[in-house]
UniProtKB/TrEMBL annotation:
Residues 4-164 form the Thioredoxin domain. This is Peroxiredoxin. The keyword Disulfide bond applies. Pfam families: AhpC-TSA. GO terms for cellular component: cytosol. Signal peptide: none annotated. InterPro entries: AhpC/TSA, Peroxiredoxin, Peroxiredoxin_AhpC-typ, Thioredoxin-like_sf, Thioredoxin_domain. It comes from Paenibacillus piri. Keywords: Antioxidant, Disulfide bond, Oxidoreductase, Peroxidase, Redox-active center.
């Protein structure tokens, strides 16, 4: 049975990372993002076809995330060495090129399992995207089939709605009015 994650404390994690520079390795935990918003996204595997379209789009928009006090972290079940190789592979060869955020290695699949995106029989994650508040509360999740990429525009829309602090109707965009509870 699926467990609800939204409106609860986000599952903790500690992951080794390949930094977006393609050179250094690191380590991150959920607590490293305290005081900032976090867009945490899972993708199935390195060196696939839909994944680089999402990862590079998020990286290209990283400065806009920073303006919203938001960090970005990508995670798959691949190793930090595979992540680094993919970052160092040119885009025209199905690589990523340099990124503005790290990629986490979930070799044990614990994070994917804890966030409810692991396809157990395949050992890979679904495309799951989570927005976590500065206090560590999971505010938003979207999980979809691995054949379909996610929308950076929709991620920004939801992030700005969550940060607005009001009741936001369908298709709310920054600058729109909030609903008033009666």
């Amino acid at each position: 049975m699926a467990e609800r994650l939204v409106a609860k404390q986000a599952p903790d994690f500690t992951l080794e990372t390949a930094n977006g520079d393609g050179v250094d390795f690191g380590k991150v935990s959920l607590s490293d993002y305290k005081g900032k918003w976090l867009v945490l996204f899972f993708y199935p595997l390195d060196f696939t076809f839909v994944c680089p379209t999402e990862i590079t789009a998020l990286s290209e928009n990283y400065d806009e995330f920073k303006k919203l006090n938001t960090e970005v972290l990508g995670v798959s079940v691949d190793s930090i060495h595979s992540h680094r190789a993919w970052i160092n592979t040119p885009k025209d060869s199905n690589g990523l090129g340099k990124l503005n955020f790290p990629l986490g290695a979930d070799i044990t699949k614990k994070a994917a399992r804890d966030y409810g995106v692991l396809i157990e029989e395949e050992g890979v994650a679904l495309r799951g995207l989570f927005i976590i508040s500065p206090e560590g509360e999971l505010k938003y999740q979207v999980v979809n089939h691995n054949d379909v990429g996610r929308s950076v525009e929709e991620t920004f829309r939801v992030l700005e709605a969550l940060q607005s602090g009001g009741l936001c109707p369908m298709n709310w965009k920054k600058g729109d009015k909030h609903l008033v509870a009666k």
